[in-house]
């Protein structure tokens, strides 16, 4: 099944623009294939104003978002993989959506981590002592016994 991210981005972009607000994208600039001006990145993230009046040649495809924008008065081409977009929101109200991690991307990352872990070193195992606990109970701490119920504390007022 294809990713739902590009469809959510396009729908929210249209909703924000139709309401006369300014759509902004929060992008993880550390992801591969993100092409943004390095001087505009702060803490590995960048906020991009993607309003029609701020960018030219905006393309919101299923894989990439591409456009030209001015940073410090100089025009730069911008290309962002859809998976690198963390959120889309209206600047004026903050309304929008933080996008969930794409399931396909999560699975790929987990597969990579598993392969890496399996190839680096075998798991280390150690013996567990077979001695019972000093009080003879291996079940761990016991829950506290419930206290006896008290009578009701409400009274009827006429």
* Shape label: flat
Computed Rg: 27 Å
Tell me the span between the first and last alpha carbons. 66 Å
Estimate percent helicity.
Answer: 10-25%
User: Helix/strand-derived class?
Assistant: alpha+beta
* Main sheet characteristics: 4 strands, antiparallel
Number of helices: 2
Mean pLDDT: 82
Written description of the protein model:
It is a single chain. The protein has helices spanning 5-18, 103-120; strands at 23-28, 45-49, 55-60, 64-71, 74-81, 85-90, 96-98. By secondary structure, the protein is of the alpha+beta class. The strands form 2 sheets. The protein has a 4-stranded antiparallel beta sheet. InterPro entries: SspB (IPR007481), SspB-like_sf (IPR036760). Keywords: Hydrolase, Protease.
Summary?
With 158 residues, the protein is α+β, with helices and mostly antiparallel strands. 20% of the residues lie in helices and 27% in strands. The strands form 2 sheets. The chain has a 4-stranded antiparallel beta sheet. The protein has a 3-stranded antiparallel beta sheet with strand order 3-4-5, covered by helices on one side.
Per-chain topology:
Elements: H1 5-18, E1 23-28, E2 45-49, E3 55-60, E4 64-71, E5 74-81, E6 85-90, E7 96-98, H2 103-120
Antiparallel strand pairs: 1-2, 1-6, 3-4, 4-5, 6-7
Structural descriptors:
158 residues; alpha+beta; 3-stranded antiparallel β-sheet; flat
